[in-house]
Amino acid sequence: VERPDGSRVRHHLDVGENPPNGAIVYYWLPEGTEGAVQLTIRNAAGEVVANFVSDDSSAPFAKRPGAKPGLNRFVWDLKVAGPEKLDPALSPRKLKPLAGDGEPPAGPTVVPGAYEVTLEVGTASLTAGFTVVPDPRVRTTEADFAAQFNLLRSLSTALSTLNQGVNRIRRLKRQLDLLPERLGDGQEAIGERASEIADSLSAIEGALVDVKRESPRDVLRNPAGLDDTLVDLINVASTADAAPTTQAHAVSAEIIGKVREQIAALDHLVDGELAALNTGLAEAGIKAVDVTA
């Protein structure tokens, strides 16, 4: 059958169906309800761990609460927000990636405990509490769940920072590549300097991601980027309901440190050489490179 978002799903006629995987939220909207529907999930400390809005066109259909009159159902997958994605419009890849190829992993699953969900529509607001319980078959302690969640959140944050940095590099490189078109006679030195900065940006980009990858199988042909290692660490740390190993903590700290080094190098390049280039462009009456893009 076809879903409202255009995706297709199979309904088996000869087997049962498991309930949706997550916390199921039911709510009733009366006729005449206007405005966006917002669902906010908070933990016992009152911290927001997830937020969903019905008119968020950038979110997939399953992440948008229903806003139609009558009974609505929303399923929260018990995960916090995932890392920021690489902008596909900035990707240098010549081949169109397959569906799901290169998608960052979802955010970590929350730890067992008390939570509450708040429904907001216009000026109306309703709150209900619920409890996330561990699988009764495992013997994982609260401390172990917390250790796993904290490591996964650190890895997810590092991956988000990495992707933000790569997006920024690619936006800067696009501007630098177009700069020669705006230069006049006698300004070749500015163009050469811009080219050198673009090369430095490419070096940082190459450390963060595999810039030569054109297909998933290229992961076997080219050296892995730091993003590949972060994703592998996320998969290792989330493979079971257990505290991460000492080795997982050690390697994670090492890779997160390398990501920070590359982002620091990017910031230094922007604040130093790129700022100096913009000073020269201003003196020549040429529009500067937008470093905030």
Explained architecture:
The protein has 293 residues and is of the alpha+beta class. The protein has four helices and six strands. The strands form two sheets. Strands 3-2-5-6 form a four-stranded antiparallel sheet, with no helix packed on it. Strands 1-4 form a two-stranded antiparallel sheet. Strand 5 and strand 6 form a beta hairpin. Helix 1 packs antiparallel against helix 2, helix 1 runs parallel beside helix 4 and helix 2 runs antiparallel to helix 4. The longest helix is centred in the last third of the chain and has 38 residues. The chain is globular.
- In what range is the share of β-strand residues? 15-25%
Q: Largest sheet, order of strands side by side?
A: 3-2-5-6
What structural category arises from helix and sheet content? alpha+beta
Computed over alpha carbons, the radius of gyration is 24 Å
Q: Helix segment count? A: 4
The mean pLDDT is 91
Question: What is the approximate shape?
Answer: globular
Distance between the termini: 42 Å
* Low-confidence spans: none
Query: How would you sum up the major sheet?
Result: 4 strands, antiparallel
Helices and strands, in order, run as EEEEEEHHHH
Oligomeric state of the chains in view: single chain
Number of strands: 6
Helix content: 25-40%
